[in-house]
Structures are given as structure tokens and as C-alpha cells.
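Incident log, support desk, overnight shift.

02:14 A customer reports that sequence design results differ from what the structure should imply. Their input is reproduced verbatim below. On-call engineer (initials T.W.) acknowledged and began investigating.
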């Protein structure tokens, strides 16, 4: 456990945060108030994924989705409507 005055913590804030990763850190103000710094890890988003390099165009992807949905409709599954682009794709 580390205890810093407000002035010390302000001057060495980066170091104080690094220490808080591994142990309790308290900051004490002149008026007697005490604050505890708590380290928490942010949860990683399931949508935070690396990109994939491909030569597929937007049109290729839309056609693949359209074909997949058409095959599903033929086999009796319920497919949705494929949104069509409002501008021509190159």
C-alpha cells in the first residue's frame, strides 16, 4: 500500500497509476480526505477484430449474400430482404 499527498500524486501521476496496477494507492488531501485509486481492465469488445485483406469487392460480397439467401429460400428457410445500394458500385 502506497500513500501519497495530493501534491506528490499530481507531480508523479503517471508513476502513481503504474503502481496502482499492482498495489493499493491512496491519495491524501490536506483537509484529511483520502481517495483510493483502483486499477481495472476494460473488457475487450467482441467486435474488436483484426481486418481481413481480400480482393473481394462490395459487389462480390453482396452477390454472395444474395445467393446464400436465395438458397435458403429454396430450402424453405425464411430469408430477409437484401438491401440494394443506392449508388452504382464500381
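02:41 Re-run completed on a clean worker. Output:
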Amino acid at each position: 500500500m502506497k500513500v501519497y499527498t495530493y501534491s506528490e500524486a499530481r507531480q508523479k501521476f503517471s508513476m502513481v497509476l503504474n503502481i496502482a496496477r499492482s498495489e493499493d494507492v491512496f491519495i491524501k488531501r490536506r483537509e484529511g480526505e483520502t481517495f483510493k485509486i483502483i486499477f481495472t481492465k476494460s473488457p475487450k469488445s467482441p467486435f474488436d477484430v483484426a481486418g481481413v485483406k481480400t480482393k473481394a469487392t462490395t459487389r462480390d460480397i453482396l452477390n454472395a449474400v444474395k445467393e446464400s439467401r436465395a438458397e435458403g429460400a429454396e430450402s424453405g428457410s425464411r430469408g430477409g430482404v437484401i438491401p440494394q445500394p443506392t449508388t452504382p458500385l464500381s
